[in-house]
Design brief:
about 625 residues; alpha/beta; eight-stranded mixed β-sheet; seven-stranded mixed β-sheet; about 20% strand; globular; binds flavin-adenine dinucleotide
Length: about 625
């Protein structure tokens, strides 16, 4: 098929809402609403669509770390700001300037305000929206608003929330224990929807969608696998022998810590290499894959092949933690924080039942008369400490906004941004600290939201979520969202719904950090058109048996690329086993005079609770250093 024909068949040139923004200003609108397919609505029926030029969540196209937001970050990393032109002094002075308006930066502002209510605080963030990874995506279609999460999805981690993090969630009015009230769990039963795997012809010889129910052996029998692969996968998913017979439990654990799950499968469980593609899209925590997950972690995560070892590997990842999911993910947590910090932008006291639909006026975030201000589209390029490490003085913070270099002064500064960029922002830091801050390589990730006109194809196929081990996106699922505070989520198959597609780029065989770097490069260099093509191709192939037509059925696309995704976490394969206080993130996050360091990176753990805990620690450090409490 010619590329032109493929473009036509997939609907690549169809007019869907697709706006690319440069510095918050639309630079090209290649499509209006899909007018032909949209039933006409009277003005009274259709709610006013939010204007994307003033309301960032309504922007579609390339979002997440969109190019204009991170352009200067790339230049910072390349040393372009090593010598700074004289910034324009704005004459603005604050008690605290926070760099980074993610959950960590917003929480830091919240904790500071709680301790010192009258102080002046400024939050600077390079994006056109606050929240960092906690990103809200909205689509307006056929008179309805559809909300999706473009990053951080839920209040849930493998580890328990600390008292500090739990208290903050409670103070924001979120009762996590009520989560189940907001999900229609019967819906999938009503339509007989379950999980499926899509086997692609490049890795498995043919394209085939296979439902995972009812039993594993039936699923494997239906999958396009070679006889040897099927036999070994059946063994692995059944009762396994003790592959490490003869070793003591301690020696078994020590061995599992030091080998990858892939090596365990191939060299210890002796499965045929023909079965390996089955494991491609799978892995352990934080998007590690079969080749980068330590076997012990895979075993603890419930991966097959370990039940005969006689070890108690079971780990309840949810124990002591909890689960809560807003339709826009933790963007609602960020919105609740903004409600407390800058009430003029989000008036009224909000809690979990009202925040999702609460209108937010972005123009009021940075009001000159307010003591708490959030300034977006502002990339901090230099933070200079005016005293010495021992004798803290003030801090000068230079940032670029609308192409201009400007500066504000602060008595204190919290860097709640990516930790690896801090050495470039604060050249004064000791060499050992700079080296430590650059140790980790963040995990590249992509959460793409696709609004489809109806989900009858999923209904026909009997699938609500599809894992595709060999394809560009390894999971695709109907976003079940939550029906909360007047927001109506998933309904009938004839109605539109948001699909959520996940990609975690990796390059099997290379060390984990190298894979992360290559994945970051991929996400930074691919265009929206390339991402769109991948989305349309994959949905077309996976859902063809259900009658899905990418050209007709896709109503809108938002790509959320996160080259700087999850914080780097340590593992037993690639990181040295050193005492906790010698870990790079601990050395890296040390306070430097009036500058403290937050962000989930500072906790070497990739979750919202860590972002909150690190904010709390950073605030405490400054308050104690200055005798402010
Ligand atoms: C796709 C994805 C899904 C996730 N899902 C979950 C989940 O379900 N649950 C969960 O608990 N965690 C999840 N996480 C982890 C998430 O990283 C944390 O939960 C949390 O949101 C991190 O917050 P943060 O403030 O530490 O960092 P960030 O959200 O990264 O915020 C840092 C902010 O600082 C800004 N910044 C950086 N440099 C500068 C500069 N020089 N000047 C100005 N601003 C700057 C950044 O652009 C960003 O806006 C997910 C992460 C990703 C990427």
């Amino acid at each position: 098929m010619s590329p032109d024909q493929e473009y036509r068949d997939l609907g690549m040139r169809r007019r869907i809402p697709r706006r690319d923004f440069l510095g918050g200003v639309a630079i090209g609108i290649t499509g209006a609403c899909a007018a032909a397919a949209t039933p006409s609505l009277s003005a009274a029926q259709a709610p006013a669509s939010p204007d994307p030029s003033t309301y960032p969540p309504a922007r579609t196209g390339l979002r997440g770390q969109y190019p204009a937001a991170v352009e200067d970050l790339g230049r910072i990393r390349d040393g372009a700001f090593a010598r700074l032109d004289e910034p324009v002094d704005t004459s603005e002075a604050y008690d605290l300037v926070i760099v980074g308006g993610g959950i960590s930066g917003l929480s830091a502002a919240y904790f500071w305000r709680r301790a010192l209510p009258d102080q002046r605080v400024l939050i600077l963030d390079n994006h056109d929206d606050f929240g960092g990874h906690a990103k809200r995506n909205e689509f307006t279609y056929q008179g309805r608003t559809f909300i999706g999460y473009g990053g951080t999805m839920g209040i849930a981690t493998p580890y328990p929330y600390s008292y500090t993090a739990k208290s903050l969630i409670a103070e924001l009015g979120i009762q996590v224990e009520r989560n189940s009230e907001f999900f229609n769990r019967e819906l999938f039963d009503t339509y007989h929807l379950g999980a499926a795997t899509f086997f692609d012809k490049e890795h498995f010889g043919e394209d085939r969608l296979v439902l995972r129910r009812p039993k594993m052996d039936e699923f494997l029998a239906n999958a396009p696998l070679t006889p040897a692969a099927r036999r070994d996968l059946m063994r692995l998913h059944g009762k396994n022998p003790d592959y490490l017979a003869g070793l003591s439990p301690e020696k078994k654990i020590a061995k599992l810590e030091r080998i990858s799950y892939q090596d365990y499968l191939l060299k210890i469980a002796n499965i045929t290499p023909e079965a390996l593609p089955f494991f491609l899209g799978q892995g352990g925590r934080n998007n590690k894959r079969v080749d980068t997950t330590p076997a012990l972690e895979a075993g603890r995560h419930g991966s097959p092949g370990f039940d005969g070892l006689g070890l108690d590997l079971h780990e309840d990842f949810r124990e002591g933690s909890y689960t809560f999911h807003f339709p826009d993910g933790n963007a609602s947590v960020a919105r609740l924080l903004v409600n407390r910090l800058v009430p003029a932008a989000l008036p009224g006291k909000h809690g979990m039942m009202t925040i999702v639909q609460a209108p937010l006026d972005y123009a009021k975030l940075d009001d000159a008369g307010a003591s708490m201000r959030i300034r977006l589209r502002s990339t901090v390029v230099r933070v200079e400490h005016e005293g010495t490490g021992e004798r803290p003085g003030g801090v000068s913070v230079a940032y670029r906004r609308d192409g201009k270099l400007q500066a504000v002064r602060a008595r204190n500064c919290i860097l709640a941004c990516y930790n690896a960029v801090i050495p470039h922002l604060v050249p004064q830091l000791p060499a050992r600290q700079k080296e430590a801050l650059q140790y980790g390589v963040k995990v590249p990730m992509m959460y793409n939201n696709v609004l489809i006109r109806r989900w009858t194809a999923f209904q026909k196929l009997g699938a609500a979520s599809i894992s595709a081990p060999g394809m560009y996106h390894t999971t695709t699922s109907i976003d079940t969202a939550s029906t909360i505070g007047g927001y109506r989520a998933l309904t009938t198959p004839e109605e539109p719904v948001v699909l959520h597609l996940v990609r975690n780029p990796n390059s099997p065989g290379l060390p984990r950090k190298e894979q992360n770097r290559l994945g970051q490069k991929e996400l930074r260099t691919m265009t929206f058109e390339q991402f769109e093509l991948e989305i349309r191709r994959q949905l077309g192939r996976m859902l063809s048996g259900g009658g899905f037509d990418p050209a007709a059925d896709i109503a809108a696309i938002t790509v959320n690329r996160w080259p700087d995704g999850y914080a780097y976490t340590y593992d037993t394969l690639g990181d040295p086993d050193v005492p906790p206080e010698q870990r790079p993130h601990v050395i890296g996050r040390q306070r430097f005079g009036s500058i403290a360091i937050a962000n989930s990176d500072a906790g070497a753990a990739a979750f919202t609770n860590q972002a909150i805990d690190e904010a709390h620690r950073a605030v405490q450090e400054l308050l104690v250093a200055h005798g402010l409490t």
